[in-house]
Amino acid sequence: MRILLVEDEPDLGTAIKWALKQERYIVDWAQDGREAWEFLQSPDLQYSLAIFDWMLPNVMGIELCQRLRLRQNRLPVLMLTARDRLQDRIAGLDAGADDYLVKPFEMEELLARLRALQRRSPDLQTQQIQFGSILLNYTERQVYCQQGERQVLISLTHKEFQLLEYFMSHPRQTVTKDQLLAQLWESGSDVGSNVVAAQVRLLRRKLAEQGCSDLIETLPSMGYRLNPDYC
Ligand code: CA
Questions:
Q1: Interval between CA 90 and ligand 1 midpoint (Å)
Q2: Domain Response regulatory: where (predicted)?
Q3: What is the 3-state secondary structure (H, E, C) of 24-46?
């Protein structure tokens, strides 16, 4: 799941980004409103959630929110702000923010609010996806393999989890390496498509250990897809 974090305070941005990455989100961090708007308009980036600070250089968080809603974009937005007057909270929600968190806050609360946004969003309500014997649980952020009556945990790294999540959310599609690179690696990260192939290999090895070696197919010179025979 990809999240756009817009926060201009370097220490806070660093701390939030770290916490989000521990929760296996893919995080793009913009430090001003204009950069955030460029991320939001990029056709290659699909965000599931956004965190906007209210006070930002160039374009304010509240304006980012208004611009999204004017374009009928329903991306769930959590606003961060030092403002705590009733009128400010009302203005934030009226601008189209889905929730509102006043600084300073505990990171645990931020993460809980994001999970709540995810549950409320019609596009993100799924708590679990299944493909054949593979179960991906969003609440626990873990993957299991169903073996008879038992569910066996497959211990994945963050990147392996994100990769499998992407495949499972696009079950009938052939996914190219470039697509995976754009969707699963942070914007501006200096990696090539051989990194994608290496990560797919690592993921396959973990799956093979649980007897699911043929889950991900390679389609020569096209990309990858989930093996339709596997279901
Ligand atoms: Ca700020």
A1: 19
A2: 2-118
A3: CCEEEEECCHHHHHHHHHCCCCC
pTM of the complete model: 0.79
Give which of 159, 144, 168, 158 is closest to 216, Cα–Cα: 168
CA of 55 to the centre of ligand 1 (A): 4
> Cα(158) to centroid of ligand 1, in Å?
29
pLDDT tens digit sequence for 9-42: 999 999 999 999 999 899 999 999 999 999 999 8
List, for residues 106-153, the tens digit of each pLDDT value.
Answer: 999 999 999 999 888 766 666 788 898 899 988 788 999 988 888 899
Question: How far is ligand 1, taken at its centre, from the CA of residue 53, in Å?
Answer: 6
Question: 82: pLDDT confidence band, cut at 50, 70 and 90?
Answer: confident
28 alpha carbon – ligand 1 mean position (Å): 17
* Residues 215, 17: Cα–Cα separation, whole Å: 31
What is the Å distance from ligand 1's center to 57 Cα? Answer: 8
Residue 126 to residue 124: CA distance in whole angstroms = 6
